[in-house]
Amino acid sequence: MMDWIDITLLTALQRNARTSLANLARALNMSGPSVSERLKRLEEQRVIEAYVPVLNIKSLGYTLEAIVRMQPLPGQLKALEKQIIDTPNITECDKVTGEDCFIARLVLRDITELDEILDGFSTIAMTATSIVKSSPVKRRTPPLQSAGRSTT
Questions:
Q1: Based on the number of CB atoms within 10 Å of its own CB, is 45 exposed (0-12), middle (13-18) or buried (19 or more)?
Q2: Cα angle value 109/115/118 (rounded, 5°)
Q3: CA-based, 20 to 30 A from 118: which of 52, 93, 104, 147?
Q4: Helices assigned H by DSSP within the chain
Q5: How far apart are CA 36 and CA 112, in angstroms?
Q6: β-sheet bridge partners, residue 131
Q7: Rounded to an integer, what distance in angstroms lies between the CA atom of residue 22 and that of residue 93?
Q8: Where exactly are the structural domains of the chain?
């Protein structure tokens, strides 16, 4: 179970994964080695899996995002999964229950890229696409709780 120190560390790292160990220690009124040990434990428990930058896709030239629901044609499930993995414009994908097997998020420089990408799936899946207008909730961490305390 996480305590308030773990939650404070995770919250600070969510805001800025580049926060220095010294700043984290100062904010918690702890020593650097103690904070380092906490972080190491959270990594070993796989609570923290990576420290990654959040990229602004528009700055990289991607003007559109799309959500594509994919339903494999008979016998094409593994081929579809491989094609999804091998398509670099797909930035996220979930394998789901229900009529569709996969829901993928992809980035596009312009709308013409959409047909080029989806054409590669036409022999192995049926697709249904929605263009993302806005994202009121970006990917975020779920509410964090310690023993007896909520930080929401």
A1: exposed
A2: 105
A3: 52
A4: 4-15, 21-28, 32-44, 77-85, 112-119
A5: 48
A6: 66
A7: 37
A8: 4-53, 57-131
Token pair 């990576």 in the structure block, residue:
50
The verdict on domain 4-53 having CATH code 1.10.10.10 is yes
The CATH number of the domain covering residues in 57-131 = 3.30.70.920
Question: Greatest CA span in the chain, whole angstroms?
Answer: 59
Q: Which burial class, exposed, middle or buried, applies to 73 when counting CB atoms under 10 A from its CB (0-12, 13-18, 19+)?
A: middle
User: Taking Cα atoms as reference points, which of 66, 17, 62 lies closest to residue 39?
Assistant: 17
